[in-house]
Amino acid sequence: MLQSEKKSLFRFLAIYLTSTFLLFSLISGIFYIYSKHQLLDQQMESLKIEAEHIKQKLRVLHHSNSNVLYYPDSKLIKSAIYDLDKHYIFGSIKQDLNATKDNSRLYLVDKVEPYYLGAAYLLVTKKISETPINHLKKNIFIFMIAGAFFVSILGYFLGRLFVAPMREAIEKMNHFIQDATHELNTPISTILTNIEMIETFGKCESKQELKRIEIASKTLSKIYDDLTYLNLNHNYHREMENLNLSELLKERITYFSSVANSKNINIIYDIQDNIIIKIDRNDATRLIDNLISNAIKYNKTNGLIKIVLKDELFVVEDSGTGIKKEDIKQILNRFKRANKNEGGFGIGLSIVNQIVKEYSFLLEIDSKENKGTKVAIKWKK
User: Fold this and answer.
1) Last residue of a domain, one of 128, 156, 174
2) What CA–CA distance (Å, rounded) separates 329 from 325?
3) Residue 347 and residue 227: Cα distance in Å, rounded?
4) Whole domain around residue 320: which residue ranges?
5) What is the per-residue pLDDT across 267-300, written as a single tens digit (0 to 9) for each?
6) 77-91, 150-164, 203-217 — which one is most confidently predicted on average?
7) Distance between CA 301 and CA 133 in Å, rounded?
């Protein structure tokens, strides 16, 4: 993993895990408070039941004829009775009724009606049972640990998905730089070598050196035009005109003839005269150039290119390496190349596809591996 990917992954994990931990803590805190209140309510209900039992015993003592009265006592709770003025009478605990706040105990003050043994109020209290509360804390802690582990694993995989587009972009950039280096190196080396030969020998028999320089220069020009178009396409101002596509196509075939001849590729064409279409000249040039350039680049030595232009139809067919069936759907994506053995950036058909979409044309690609590729563009007047 690259350093930039690691930084992005760590930043994502830090934000993701921190926000998730805060959310989990908030939810756990709310759950703890709610559950603790429920547990305390349950203990308070049991205290109320004990208070009722004591009042019943007080009633029995009140109506008893015995000279000795035994105050009802319990091992679970402590209690005391008070008069109307809330003065202490008797009990197993001596507690001021106005000071019954203690975080470790539960207190319940209940009225005694009628006043059994002169008591108007009954105070019952017991220590809060910490066992269920501690059990609740333990369960929440286990949940937090398990949740943190699960969220961390999930966050890691989500982080990898998060940085995947960056990795893909970096890989595309690296491939682009490698392809650009290769693509530019060949024509530049050709130009420099042949210039040196001209300077050394002074004359060029059959002008082969100049022909190579011409081919290399056209290759560089094509690369520059494609990259410029790709970069400026969204801001490009199109000048629409009724363009004679037949004449433009013949010009471009002548332009590429020297490149095709260098690979002994024969270009045959059937061009109907005066096919007029409303389109920007630069768009039409890019469209034609990329299809012919691809047909030459991915063709075989001594191969054949067939070009057809008729009313509402433009076809470029080659006898080259072809495209695998599973790659045809992806071949229109930028930087996607079906054949990496040949040069190029994988932007030719992407540019063609952009132009086709811009003018609402129909693009059809039919290809068979090792047999060739046929690209057809259709439009309506």
Assistant:
1) 128
2) 8
3) 8
4) 238-378
5) 999 999 999 999 988 889 888 988 998 888 888 8
6) 77-91
7) 84
Asked whether the whole model's pTM tops 0.85, one would answer: no
49 domain residue, yes or no: yes
CA atoms of 266 and 22, how far apart (whole Å): 70
**209 within some domain:** no
What's the mean pLDDT in 210-221?
Answer: 68
**Burial state string for 145-175 with b = 16 or more CB within 10 A and e = fewer than 16:** eebeeebeeebeeebeebbeeeeeeeeeeee
Count how many domains the chain has.
2
H/E element, 358: helix 348-358
Integer angstrom CA distances of residue 137 from 32, 34, 42: 7, 12, 17
CA dihedral 180, 335, 359, 220 (to 10 degrees): 10
Q: Across-strand partners of 304?
A: 266
Measured distance CA(111)–CA(121) in Å, rounded: 5
Render 213-258 in DSSP notation, one character per residue: HHHHHHHHHHHHHHHHHHHHGGG----EEEEEHHHHHHHHHHHHHH
- Cross-sheet strand order for the sheet of 88-91: 88-91, 78-82, 121-127, 105-111
Which distant-in-sequence residues (6+ apart) come within 8 Å of 287 by Cβ? Answer: 351, 352, 355, 356, 377
User: Considering the domain boundaries, does residue 186 fall inside one?
Assistant: no
Contact residues for 113 (Cβ-Cβ < 8 A; gap 6+):
none
- Cα(375)–Cα(377) distance, integer angstroms: 7
Cα 98 to Cα 88: distance, rounded to the nearest angstrom: 12
244 plus 124 within the same structural domain: no
The answer to whether residues 138 and 126 touch, using CB atoms and an 8 Å cutoff, is no
